[in-house]
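Order emerges. As here.
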Amino acid sequence: IPATATDTEPVTERATSSSHDSSVPSDTIQLTSQMPSFEPYIHSPCRRSRVEWASGNEAVVPILTLLGYLHTIVRTSTPDSSKFPVAEAKTFQTHQLTTKLIQCLAANALAVSLLGPAGLPAWCHVLMAHARYLFPFEVRREYFSFVSFGALRLLGTYLQTNPHLRFVRADVRAEDMHAGLKIRVDRRNLLRDADLTLLENADKKAAMDVVYQKEVGTGLGPTLEFFTLVSQQLQHRGMGLWHGDVEVPSEPADVSFSSSPCSSSSAVAPSVWDLVDTQECIMAAEGLFPKRVGKGDDHARSQVMFTMVGRFIGKALQEGRLVDLHLSPFLFALLSNWHCFQTNPALFSIARVSTVDRALALSLEKLVGLRHQPDAPALIAGMELYFVLPGDERPLKPNGDRIQVTLGTLEEYVWRVCHHTLLTAVLPNLHAIIDGFEEVLPTGSLSAFEEGELDQLLCGQLWDCAHPLWTAEELTAAITCAHGYTDASPEITSLISILCDDFAPEEQRLFLIFLTGSPRLPIGGITAVKPKITVVRKGASELSTEDEDSGLALPSCNTCFHYLKLPSYPSVEVAAHKLRQAIREGQASFNLS
C-alpha cells in the first residue's frame, strides 16, 4: 500500500539499472507474470481528469485509492500465490452506491435522451470508469447501454417501460423508435457486403435487420447468423489479419480515398475480401490479436480490413449480438484504455505479452531468470542477443541490430520487446481498429468493464469443445412446451436426452446455431436465452399425417422466437437421426417465411 494515498501520480517501481538511455521510460515494467500489477485505481488517459475529479472530493480520494490497490491485489492473486485469504470481487460492491446509480439512471432518462452522457451527474461516469469494482456487472452493463446506444433507442425503451408518459408527445411511438435498418446481403460475398453495410450504418443507432438475397427469412435469426458468419470468416487462415497468420500474396487492392473521414472502404474493390478460398480458421489459444506490420504488407488493404473489424465489434456490442470472435484480453484492454496505454509505458509487461504470444512470454521469463545465475554476464553474452525484435529482426531502437544485450541492458531489452510486440509493431492496425470502433461507439464507454467481462459481452459464455453446453436440468428449465406437447410428453423427454446425452459438444453447438442463429450462449447459459425455447408439435397443418407417422418429416424452427417445431417420431433413434440431419443440412439458408 502506498504511504501517501493522496498522491496524484501512479506508484510504480523505478529502474535499478543505470545503463538505460534517455529514451527508456523511468517507470520500469514488471518483469515476471507472477508479480501483481499494482496499477492505481484511476487509470485515466491523462492526469488532468484525475485532478479535476479530485477537486472537491479530497475526502473520498484516499478511500478509493486504498480500495483500488486492495482490489488489484485480490484480482491478481490466487490461493496458491498469496499467503493471505483472497476476498471475492463482490466484497468490494456497495449496495448503497448501486441503488443510487439505478435511481439516477431512471430519473435522468429523458435528460440523457436529449443531452447524451452529459445528462448524468459527473460522479456516475467517474466511479463507473475509475472504480467499477464498486458495482455489479449487471448494473454496469445497464449503464453502458444507457449512455452508448443513442437518444432514439433510449427514448423508445423508456416509453415502452413507462407507458403512462406517452402523453408527453402524442406523435411519438415506442415502436417507431425500434424500427430496424433493413439490410440485404449476399452470402457469396458476405465480407464485402458486411464492409459496405457497416460503413454506411456505423453512425446509426437503429438495429440492423439482415435479409439474405434470394431467401424469404427475415428477423432476428438471419441477423444473428449474419454476425456469426462474418465473425467466422474474419478468422479464415490466409486473410493476414491476426498474429500467427500469413497473408496470401496478392496484387495491391484498388482502394481509393477521399477527404471523408469515413471513406476508407467506400470504394474497396471486391478483391480485398475475395482473396482466401480456405475455410480453415486460426486457432489462437490466447485470443486473436492484430498481426505485426511488415515491410511488404499492403497497408491500404490492411487499413480497410481492420477498420471494418473495429466497426463490426462496435456494432455487435451496440446491438447485443453474440459473435464467435475470441479476441485477446489485451486487445480489449487497449480498446477500453487506449490513451492510458499510449501515455504509460510501464503497463507493458511480460504478463501482458502472455495474453498475445505465450511462447514469447515464456522465453522472456527464462531470459529474465538468468539474472540470478552466478555466471549471468557470460551466459547472456554467449546468447549473442541484439536489440532486434525476435522473429522479425526489426531494430528495437536506432542501430539496435549492432548493439548487443548485456546484463546491464537486459531489463531494457525485455521492456522494448514487450512494447514493440504489444504496441509499436502493430500500431497502424490498432489505429484502424480503434478508428472503426469509434465510428460506432466511444472507446471510453468500455472502461466500465474488465477485460474478461468485455469478452463475455461480445462472445457470451466461454465455449469449450471438451465440455457440454448445458445439463439436463438447465435444458429442462429453459424449455417451454405448447401446442401438442407438455413437460411430461415422451417426445420432450427424448429431446432432452438426445441433446444432453447423445449429442457431442460440437453437435450441441450446431443445434444452438440451428435454433437461434448464434453459436454462443449468453452470460448465464441456456437458461438466459431470450425468448425462452418453445417446443411445439409439428402437426397436420404443416405436413401430411402419412409423413408424420412414417417419420419422414424433419424438425424446423423459427429462429426469431426460438420456436422448435418437432414431429412425433416412433423411436428415440429416429428422433436423434432427424435432429442431426436438420442441424447439419438446415444451415446457411432461411427458406421458410
